[in-house]
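Batch 3, record 17
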Amino acid sequence: MPTSSNLKTREKSLRRDLLQAQFDLAQREQSVVVVIGGLPGAGKSELVHRLNEWLDPRFLATCALWMHSDEEEDRPYFWRFWRHMPPHGRITLFLDSWYTRTLYENAADKLDPLALQTRLAQINAFERMLYDDGTLVVKLWLEVDRMTAQQRLAEDALRLAHLPASAERWSQDYEAATNAANAIVAGTDAAQAAWQRIPAQDADKRDIIAGETLLTLLTTQTPPVRAAVNHNSWFAGSEELQNNVLADVPLDAQLSKSDYATLLEAEQHKLQALAWRAHDERRSLIAVFEGWDAAGKGSAIRRVTAPMDPRLYRVVQSAAPSDEEQAHHYLWRYWRNLERSGRATLFDRSWYGRVLVERVEQFAAPQAWQRAYDEINQFEQQLQDHGCIVVKFWLHISPAEQLRRFQDRQNTPHKQHKITDDDWRNRARWADYESAVLDMVELTSTAAAPWTLVAGNDKRYARVQILQTLCAALEQGLSTQ
Amino acid sequence: MPTSSNLKTREKSLRRDLLQAQFDLAQREQSVVVVIGGLPGAGKSELVHRLNEWLDPRFLATCALWMHSDEEEDRPYFWRFWRHMPPHGRITLFLDSWYTRTLYENAADKLDPLALQTRLAQINAFERMLYDDGTLVVKLWLEVDRMTAQQRLAEDALRLAHLPASAERWSQDYEAATNAANAIVAGTDAAQAAWQRIPAQDADKRDIIAGETLLTLLTTQTPPVRAAVNHNSWFAGSEELQNNVLADVPLDAQLSKSDYATLLEAEQHKLQALAWRAHDERRSLIAVFEGWDAAGKGSAIRRVTAPMDPRLYRVVQSAAPSDEEQAHHYLWRYWRNLERSGRATLFDRSWYGRVLVERVEQFAAPQAWQRAYDEINQFEQQLQDHGCIVVKFWLHISPAEQLRRFQDRQNTPHKQHKITDDDWRNRARWADYESAVLDMVELTSTAAAPWTLVAGNDKRYARVQILQTLCAALEQGLSTQ
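Prediction for the assembled complex:
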């Protein structure tokens, strides 16, 4: 057993080494997520304090998600954690984390085995995704015996008075609660995000051991290098296997001016009422618009928003990411732009950039875009689980039609800004993009969020097809759940 | 009266010119705030729609603050608008704005003359501040007669069903409500943010006239160039007038190790309870820590946070601003970091950088830092009006003590990262900084948020002084309101 002066010596060198490790992290732009777990009374807050004392506050944040807000409840559960993800080079301590809810609910016997398994799978997928993106995931589980936990809680009357009601279970049936917690720890002890069990009977030893464990992981664990491009392992996609669904898009389809006027008005009228209904039922529409350059995404979106009250929607443009966005996972900028329940978010280009332009232009490493299909499916699953209605459009046009539109843009003064060298470069790689589109459609068309391939050569036809699809999806979505 | 084909022609050239004006804005990094005002039924939403159709969505956002969230209610009123301020080069249309609340409340006779005057003064100061920072403030007031307004409302049953209850006043006593609105328009018709009255009887004409008015302002109005430095007009501060309060700080004051231990523990114990009490009463502490390099801000902050539950506070470091922060008013990054009611936000350096380092190093133009004193006082007034308890510390040390600490840092391996060339450069300009500090203390020591000058040569004394000041301010603040 270490003596108190022994601990003092260890603390001194630990603090120095932790600071050095933080500078190294900042240098190599490594982000770190630290989850502090344990039963009530294990000393989680005290450890967070100590780490805040020891670490350099310039590279550190603490997330204590104690008061939930309606803005959080209005988005999928993980939104509240995405908000607090550390940018590159920083550490965030999660005093309350994606484990908190499941720990309490499982201890209170509120989760059946299937629900628990689903939760654990979500957590594992989330941590896997962080790890794959180069974030180190450190999870500390503080272990105390019942007596110590209860004594420690009793000593802090103020804290005790502010514990959630659900914590009572631990005083009623400590063994059952402990078993419930252990099941969660065991079920989330993955190689890339292993639980570190910290003996927490003695407060000083607990902090030293936790700090030393953190230090070891900071200095020895290296998640995969983020987005490093390995041109040798370049993988051209699964062309051979592809069923060319794009070839089946009826690009000849047309609408006459008068049919268009009639249909457009009818669908817009429907959409206006559906948008209000979605608001009243607090359901969100998430609409993704992807397509070839000059396919007409912008003008189609304007036909969609025209009948909607401006209070009920927002259009999100995927422009160049800001430096804050670049310092996070590629999905972070889309999570941060999700609207609250009852409102529509229309994405003019989206997270699918990862498997389209970033794949084709080799901005993302093959392993990065290849795993993105799963990450995207999981993201959209979370949207649906929250009650969002997810609709995805690929606006398809023929190469000849694109050329016609490019030339029209070049020849029309007020459209010239819409055509750039990039557009011509992308056009030259039509086959590569087509291959990426086919993979995307195949790998991310889920039952609940299928892709709609829009016949875009005739803009009138395309707009009506989009409005009809949106109205049908809203009608169907609003009548369920 | 324009014919319909006349309007079509005007619309065509208007759209082209608006797009061009937007590119020019983006080029010169000019931000624009457009407030859409008018009584219910005037056609505000319709105009917002039309502008969304006409303008390039890449440089445009619409703010419809219709559903208020608890996160918004937990901060000063203007926080909800700061969230939506356009970055440089962008336009934000405010369908609901800082006028909405006052319009409704004044129409419902809920504001006495003094309260109304205060509101209008706040609005004028806010818009003045935006304008001074280089943001163009365009305010369109849509004018319709009673019949047209009511008819238009009646035509849109869905909208009508979603109007706030307070809108009923307009149907009960339209003339009184109109007079109440006119008083607000008249009281906020400032030169740098003039109201443009738009005849809105006819929907098509309304949109064309509003668009043309916007275009004219975008192309002819130029707010002061943002933060341009004019070295010729450099103003050295008000040295002659200064009462050198820094000279009166008792830098010799000391505490023995044992007195320190006793006092520290007593004050930390008090602070622990006060932090919980502030949480329970939903009052926020805003603590600002400024001081000389090596004055001990970081270690003092750690003594403050040590007794507080980690769920109850956040420390905000003023590191280099991100590009998102740089594209906004300098106060934006502090507004975005304010914690919710019941939690403490501790700023390790703060908005006072504007009148300290940015003044001395000439990063801000003289007119920019000179007007900042007023802007800061108004900001802190808003915090206090919301119920925040604002405490500000200047950690003072002598030049000799600073030298001693710099040398200590250079000679101690694990402290070397804390001393940079900047520190030595700043030290060489001690007199300039002192002058800036004296102006700051003189011009921003308000009754409700006075500066506390901390005697920092003895770290023990300084920490106890800070804790005592914080506890006293919390005790006094929590017993009022």
